[in-house]
Fold this protein.
Amino acid sequence: MKVHLIRVFRKGCNGHNIIGVVYSPKLNFSTMEMKKIAHNSKLDKVVFVTKSTKANIRLRFFTPDKEYTICFVSMFAAIHLLTNIEKDNYKAKFVSIETSLTVFKIDVMRTAFRTRDCQLIQAANAAFIAEKKPYWVNKNRKFNGYEQGKFLLEMPDTFATKPMLARHLLETMLVDIRDIDTLFYEFSKILGTPKFRMQIRYNDETVENFFISLYIQDIAAGRMIHLESMSKIIPAIDVPYH
């Protein structure tokens, strides 16, 4: 079984993740087969792109030991691969992705390459080599009164010119350094299963690097989570599963 490999560098995480993506929309793997592929791959995370009766595709997330409800770093990897394999389906259009948590309705928009993306490449490459924390992690002892150990999900440009903006706005963009998937799952348990609006902005104007900005909005609560990643496809591997 061919397992595509995507190296993903994501905001708020140290170093990088190599994610396995199994593109199998025409195959019907059993859960046991998926677990076996994930285990035999010797990768930390594997995501399966499968058929869905509720959405365009279904994503199932596995580690060598178990299946997870949601894993955003794996979702980034799957989206990267899909925009390469199914380019015509991911050009400024609406798609839906089923997960065990909920069906995500997504607006897909291709954006122009930005100067900030060049800076991200440089910072990410340095982190890959040195295994240091990403440059956007809060390294200051205090940031506007917040303790070290928080990271920014997003820094609006207005903060550069208006640093005294309402404190609650900044609070919505600072989270503890725990895995965002865990935070999101806990958030969803509190609210039940709300309807989410997701938006993907991506550009692929560089040959090697692919950028995704993911906006997750809980319509009922009026909360927004913004995640960013840089990813790169690396040579695939063959994994036995019989």
In short: Residues 159 and 166 are 10 Å apart (CA to CA).
